[in-house]
Amino acid sequence: MQQQSRQHAQNQTGPQEPQGSQPSEQDQKQPLALYGGKRNRRVTVRDLARAKERGEKWPMLTAYDAMTASVFDESGIPVLLVGDSMGNCHLGYETTVPVTMDEITMLTAAVVRGTKRSLVVADLPFGSYQEGAVQALRSSTRLVKEAGAGAVKLEGGERSADQIDLLVRSGIPVMAHIGLTPQSVHAMGYRVQGRGEEAAHQLLRDAKAVQDAGAFAVVLELVPGEVAAEVTRSLHIPTVGIGAGAGCDAQVLVWTDMAGLTPGKLPRFVKQYANLRASLSEAASAFADEVVGGTFPAPEHTVN
């Protein structure tokens, strides 16, 4: 598909939204903040576009189950990503590559069931869209119809433009992902992307390609802060940074990293806001000690 065709399709249709997700009359009169604004419907891609226009920053977290998702939803997180990062932090894989469509469909459905307001974005796992646009549409349709996802995310810039174009024209909102793309770990490794003049220019070309294809937002992962800020200024769609500095429109973290559940050394860009690993370990040890010591269950925990 030629770039002119993609631009024409975007101009004609704009970002697509799931049926029934139109903003309420009150929201249209007084746009609500993405974080902290009380709304009685799910966040939509149009809400994200309006936030970009207002210069409003917003948070995004990953989620992989209904209970955790409900906590984030109640906390006001406007966008939840059912990322293929589940492979590393939920399913026990060494990388994201082994994650399957069955796995991501099941966990996306759980996150959707656990939420009322957050826009739920589901990752397309490795091997589910690389063959071309038709395969991407088949995989995305499954995530939307079976799991209830409000949007999908896929990796790649210019190389994924055809897939994005067909999905958007078919009514499926797409979040793009450039910079470090973890599904390509065997080819590029885990290293900063966009360093040097030519690499920075390629990153900008990739960003504009996904925007022209119709993506409603783009994740910038492990990109120098100055480069990410320049990309953000050059686009009319929101950028979501992870290891890309404060110049992006939004920020995302893997929730187990953010909450201190992930063991071992974490990337420099991660900030831990809690220490859930220590808290859970203490709770499990306390439970075990009481069982072994015969103090649990006590009479108040026993059915008469």
What would you say this structure looks like, in words?
This protein is of the alpha/beta class and 304 residues long. The protein contains 13 helices and eight strands. It has helices spanning 3-13, 25-29, 45-54, 66-74, 86-89, 101-113, 133-145, 161-169, 185-188, 197-213, 225-234, 255-258, 276-293; strands at 58-62, 79-82, 119-123, 151-155, 174-179, 217-221, 239-242, 250-253. An eight-stranded parallel barrel has the order 1-2-3-4-5-6-7-8, surrounded by seven helices. β1 (58-62), α4 and β2 (79-82) form a beta-alpha-beta unit. α1 (3-13) packs parallel to α8 (161-169), α4 (66-74) packs across α6 and α8 packs parallel to α10. The radius of gyration is 20 Å and the shape is globular.
Write a compact overview of the structure shown.
The chain is an alpha/beta fold.
Task: Provide the descriptors you would attach to this structure in a database record.
304 residues; alpha/beta; 8-stranded parallel barrel; 13 helices; disordered N terminus
The run of helices and strands is: HHHEHEHHEHEHEHHEHEEHH
Percent of sequence in beta strands: 5-15%
Main sheet? 8 strands, parallel, barrel
Average pLDDT = 89
So what's the overall shape?
Answer: globular
Q: How large, in whole angstroms, is the Cα Rg?
A: 20 Å
Q: What's the N-to-C terminus distance?
A: 71 Å
Share in helix: 40-55%
**SSE-based structural type:** alpha/beta
- Count of DSSP helices? 13
The number of distinct β-strands equals 8
As residue ranges, the low-confidence spans are 1-21
Topology:
Blueprint lengths: L2 H11 L11 H5 L15 H10 L3 E5 L3 H9 L4 E4 L3 H4 L11 H13 L5 E5 L9 H13 L5 E5 L5 H9 L4 E6 L5 H4 L8 H17 L3 E5 L3 H10 L4 E4 L7 E4 L1 H4 L17 H18 L11
Parallel strand pairs: 1-2, 1-8, 2-3, 3-4, 4-5, 5-6, 6-7, 7-8
